[in-house]
Amino acid sequence: MLNNPHSPATAPDAPVRRSYLFVPGARPDRFAKALAAGADAVIIDLEDAVAPADKDGARTAVCSFLRERAAESGPAVFVRTNSLRSRTGMLDILALTDGAAPGWAGLLLPKVDGAEDVRLAAGLLDERGLPGTLGALIESADGLEHAMAIAAASPRLSFLMFGGADLSAELRVPLAWEPLLHARSRVVHAASRFGLDALDMPWIALDDEEGYRRELARSVLHGFTARSAIHPKQIAAIHDAYTPPAEAVIQAGRVLAAFEAAGGGVCTLDGKLVERPLVQGSHRILALARRAGML
C-alpha cells in the first residue's frame, strides 16, 4: 500500500494528528486561543478567511507571530497560503520562507489542481534549506482528476485535504455526504496509496451536534485519518471519533506481540492469519491510543 516510503506520513516517528483547527489569519488576537484549544494542529488561514483588502496586513501579522513562537512547543501550526498561481500566494510563501527557523510545521496549499503546485512549494523550501511538510487541498474537478499525481508529487507532502465546499459548487451538487462520496473516496484512495494522511473538510453547521457526530463516524469509516474544524467546540467530538475502543487497543497489542514473537513473519493469532497489513493497522490503533492518553 505504501508506494511512497519516503513520505513523512509513513515514517515510524510521524506524528498522529486527529484534528486541525482553522483560525483566520487576519485575527492575530485569536491565535493564542486557537493554540490552547486542544487541537492536534492549527491552520492559520491567509486565504478564504481573509478579505482581499486585508491580505497584506494578515500576512505581516502571521509572519510576525510565527517568528516570535519559533522556539515554542504546542500543537503543530500550518499556514494556508493563497493559491501559488496568484501573486498573493507567491507573496505569502516568499514571506513565510524568509527566515532560517520558521515557527510553523508546514504549509497548506489551496486549490491544488496538479502536481506542479506541490513541487513549486517544495522547491522553494528546498532552496531555502527549510524544514516543513506540505498539505494539498483538493477542491476542484482538476484536482480530483489529478489526485494520484498530486499525492506522489513530493516527499514533503504529508496530507491531502478534501475541500467539499468549492468542489460541490464546481460539481453542481449539494454540500452533503452522499453527492460528494465519490470525490471523498478519490481523495482517501490517493492519500492511502502514497502513505499520506487524509483530512476531511470542516463541518459548518455548528449547532447540529448530532449530525456532526454522525458525519464524523462516516469520515472514520471511509478512511479519513483526521478532520478539520472551524470552532474549538468541535475538537472534542473529533477526538472521540478517532479514539479506538479499549478492546481494539488490547487486540492491537496482542497482534504486535505475536508478530514480534514470530520474528516479523507471518503467524497466526486466535486462529487468524497475522500479516503486514494487520500489523500496520495495529500500529495506528496504538498510536491513536497514545495520542488519546490511553497508553
UniProtKB/TrEMBL annotation:
The answer to keyword Flavoprotein applying to this record is: no
Pfam families per UniProt: HpcH_HpaI
What does the record give as cofactor?
Mg(2+)
Does Transport count among this protein's keywords? no
Task: Report keywords, A-Z.
Answer: Lyase, Magnesium, Metal-binding
Under the heading InterPro entries, the entry gives: Aldolase/citrate-lyase_domain (IPR005000), Citrate_lyase_beta/mcl1/mcl2 (IPR011206), Pyrv/PenolPyrv_kinase-like_dom (IPR015813), Pyrv_kinase-like_dom_sf (IPR040442)
**A single MF term (Gene Ontology):** lyase activity
Domain HpcH/HpaI aldolase/citrate lyase intervals: 18-232
Write down the PANTHER family for this protein, in alphabetical order: HPCH_HPAI ALDOLASE_CITRATE LYASE DOMAIN-CONTAINING PROTEIN, LYASE BETA SUBUNIT, PUTATIVE (AFU_ORTHOLOGUE AFUA_4G13030)-RELATED
Of which family is this protein a member? Belongs to the HpcH/HpaI aldolase family.
Protein name, as recorded: CoA ester lyase
Organism of derivation: Azospirillum isscasi
Q: What is the lineage of its organism?
A: Bacteria, Pseudomonadati, Pseudomonadota, Alphaproteobacteria, Rhodospirillales
